[in-house]
TrEMBL record:
This is Amine oxidase. Belongs to the copper/topaquinone oxidase family. Residues 248-661 form the Copper amine oxidase catalytic domain. The active site is at D326 (proton acceptor), Y414 (schiff-base intermediate with substrate). Topaquinone (TPQ) is generated by copper-dependent autoxidation of a specific tyrosyl residue.
């Protein structure tokens, strides 16, 4: 939410590199560079988008610009023919802009250099916020007389106040203006200002007018002390814990993967990796080479984090509205950080940059937005020891190495570590790490024994409450298992009670497959029984007759605890089930809806899916929501050690047998200049 320094840092990068280029770039659209049809928009293309839109609109603010991907058959046909004929489908951009206080959805054809369509959005809600408008909103209280009086009344120094913007959700009203709430914090020698809220004040900012239109100073609460809030190494007092010795990953022959544009090849995997300002990393066209069939087999057409719902559980005036949809309101990609070599990613990592559009339409770069690295963490790929045979004991062990694609997004106080990990076994493992700073509420309490009321959280330090909240991450997983036409199977493990004369057992379980016919068959709440979930290709079987498939192995099970008719739960309606399956539809991308800030939840996965369309033997999309209920604990203060969760997509009768049987142990690395 506060992104002041980064917005201006990104802006500065832009100024130095792109303005100079602007002139000749406009005349160099017909580029000879070979694109992949799913490549994200280049800085040149982003400038082209800005130029084309500015021809018909003088005063535009750009809230989202991204690739409008070609239709799936066009991409697939390009993929199978591009060696022969390099023509890629038309490059199109999709833009969400604010023009004269209206939201526009604009499509631009970059290949023909024209605006294809420009339509005013008349539905509920507003687009992604820009850094620039958040920065402007955050500065308003500092010159607003009632706020200055509130600061003085509390005996605080105005020069030490910093403010942050919060989207306001929707609570049943009809049409509201485009507003934010701004909440302020006290720095005064601290850097971890999120631990030091100036509680009791609510300022409402009208973003179109860019002024404060509502203000309420309701109660005085002490600002939590700065002591113990700093997380920087340079300010910690000794003793330090120095017990660990150094370690590194050393690949003298370089990494085993190659990156060609945005296409990545590693071991048996091949996939396309793009950056999107809303979703962050987008994995496309993941396929795996099957040596037995001597062919590259399709696994996943597209995978990305579609929405991230973070409702807080505090009902007071200053807090009740905090029910964020981070992807659609703040942008997971937009909030991504340049990764720090040797800290965010290991020594053997390779980095990639990403580009997004600033409010004025100019492109900006996030350098090192992704890192890719091979992970060897001492794990075992498979093994067996066989002592029972005559002669020597057989021990066969293979070590596990995988490929990780990482991005870190800092959405205001929280840091989300997003890892897509590819394994030689055919598994794709997604891990989300939560770190960063809790959203803290100032409190009068300094000890738990004083508390006689509902405080909606945990007292973490004196005057410092960590408010209860959830994180629900909804993933769009368009699996194309060996082709487009797939089906979803729920395998229920059913207990069977028996009473047999000749067998002493009383029970066992059996696996019963249910093939989902329509969307309602595939709406699943996890944790209610033992089941397995598969996406299969019902048109293809293994030699022994099993459907070729991939299995979803869910992570920690968390389901929403809010009432179904509560407004934030309507907006976050995609969390009602942990699993959904929809027929592929290019426009159904964002589980919380396309335009979600102050939206009414009328464009969510829950709404699309209520049509109960057919999903059997069709191109289908699996939606999985990973949830965390977060009751803060004292260890989360002043910065939270990473808490991780995730899920796996694992081959299930996809291969004829163990696909890593013939993986050879890599050659042992010789350390240079080392005598041992
Ligand atoms: C541009 O539009 C914003 C609102 O969308 C308005 O506040 C501003 O005055 C406009 N600027 C110009 C130069 O028209
Ligand atoms: C906000 O700005 C608008 C237009 O500039 C003005 O009409 C309105 O009175 C302002 N509101 C406040 C509270 O200053
Ligand atoms: C695709 O999804 C959108 C939004 O749910 C819907 O309006 C449209 O009719 C769908 N298209 C098809 C072909 O089902
Ligand atoms: Cu949390």
């Amino acid at each position: 939410m506060i992104k002041k320094s980064e917005a201006s840092q990104k802006a500065i990068t832009m100024r130095s590199s792109f303005r100079i280029l602007l002139f000749f770039l406009i005349f160099s659209f017909v580029s000879t560079h070979e694109f992949h049809p799913l490549d994200p928009l280049t800085p040149n293309e982003l400038i082209q988008v800005q130029t084309l839109i500015k021809i018909s609109h003088q005063n535009v603010s750009f809230h989202y610009v991204g690739l409008d991907e070609p239709k799936k058959p066009e991409v697939l046909s390009w993929l199978s023919n591009h060696q022969l004929n390099n023509k890629i489908p038309h490059r199109l951009a999709f833009v969400i802009a604010r023009i004269d206080s209206k939201t526009h959805e604009i499509f631009v054809d970059l290949s023909d250099n024209l605006v294809v369509s420009d339509k005013v959005y008349n539905g509920h809600g507003y687009p992604l916020l820009t850094f620039e408008e958040q920065t402007a909103a955050n500065e308003l209280p500092l010159t607003y007389a009632p706020f200055i009086a509130s600061v003085e009344k509390r005996g605080l120094k105005l020069s030490e106040v910093i403010c942050s913007s919060f989207t306001i959700g929707w609570y049943g009203g009809k049409r509201t203006k485009r507003v934010l709430k701004v909440m302020c914090y006290y720095i005064d020698g601290a850097v971890n200002f999120y631990m030091r809220p100036i509680e009791g004040i609510t300022a409402t900012v009208d973003l179109d007018e860019m002024n404060i239109t509502g203000y309420h100073d309701r109660l005085m609460v002490p600002v939590p002390k700065a002591d113990g809030t700093d997380y920087r190494e340079s300010t910690q007092d000794p003793p330090f814990d120095t017990r660990l010795k150094g370690m590194t990953v050393f690949q003298p022959d370089g990494p085993s993967f190659t990156i060609d544009g945005h296409s990545v090849r590693w071991a048996n995997w091949e996939f396309h990796l793009a950056f999107d300002m809303r979703a962050g990393p987008v994995i496309s066209l993941a396929s795996i080479y099957d040596p037995e069939k001597d062919e590259r087999r399709r696994v996943m057409y597209r995978g990305y984090l579609s929405e991230l719902f973070v409702p807080y559980m505090d009902l007071t005036e200053e807090w009740y509205y905090r029910t964020f949809l981070d992807a659609g309101e703040f942008g997971i990609g937009l909030c991504a950080n340049p990764l720090k070599p040797l800290r965010d990613c290991p020594e053997n990592a390779v980095f990639m940059d990403g580009y997004f559009t600033m409010q004025d339409g100019k492109p900006a770069k996030i350098s090192k937005v992704f890192c890719l690295f091979e992970r060897y963490a001492g794990d075992i790929l498979w093994r067996h020891t066989e002592p029972a045979l005559p002669g020597d004991t057989i021990t066969e062990v293979r070590q596990e190495t995988s490929l990780v694609v990482r991005m870190v997004s800092t959405v205001g106080n929280y840091d989300y570590i997003i890892d897509w990990e590819f394994k030689q076994t055919g598994t794709i493992k997604v891990t989300i790490g939560l770190s960063g700073l809790l959203a803290i509420k100032g409190s009068v309490y300094t000890h738990k024994d004083q508390i006689r009321e509902e405080i909606y959280g945990t007292l973490l330090a004196e005057n410092t409450l960590g408010v209860h909240h959830d994180h629900f991450l909804s993933f769009h997983l368009d699996l194309d298992v060996d082709g487009d036409a797939n089906s979803f199977i729920k395998t229920n493990l059913e207990p069977v009670h028996v009473n047999k004369k000749d067998i002493p057992r009383k029970s066992y379980w059996r696996a019963v497959n249910q093939m989902a016919k329509t969307e309602s068959d595939a709406k699943i709440k996890l944790g209610l029984g033992a089941s397995e979930f598969l996406v299969v290709n019902p048109n293809k079987k293994t030699k022994v007759g099993n459907y070729i498939g991939y299995r979803l192995i869910p992570g920690s099970v968390s389901s929403p605890l809010l009432s179904e008719d509560d407004f934030e739960q309507i907006r976050g309606g995609f969390t009602k089930y942990n699993l959904w399956v929809t027929p592929y539809n290019k426009s159904e991308k964002w589980a919380g809806g396309l335009i979600v800030d102050q939206g009414h939840g009328d464009d969510t996965l829950a709404i699309w899916s209520s049509r109960n369309r057919k999903i059997e033997n069709k191109d289908i999309v699996l939606w999985y929501t990973l949830g965390f209920h977060h009751v803060p604990h004292q260890e989360d203060f002043p910065v939270m050690p990473t808490l991780s969760g995730g899920f796996e997509l694992r081959p299930a009768n996809f291969f004829e047998h163990n696909p890593v049987l013939k993986v050879k142990v890599p050659k042992q690395v010789k350390w240079p200049n080392c005598t041992k």
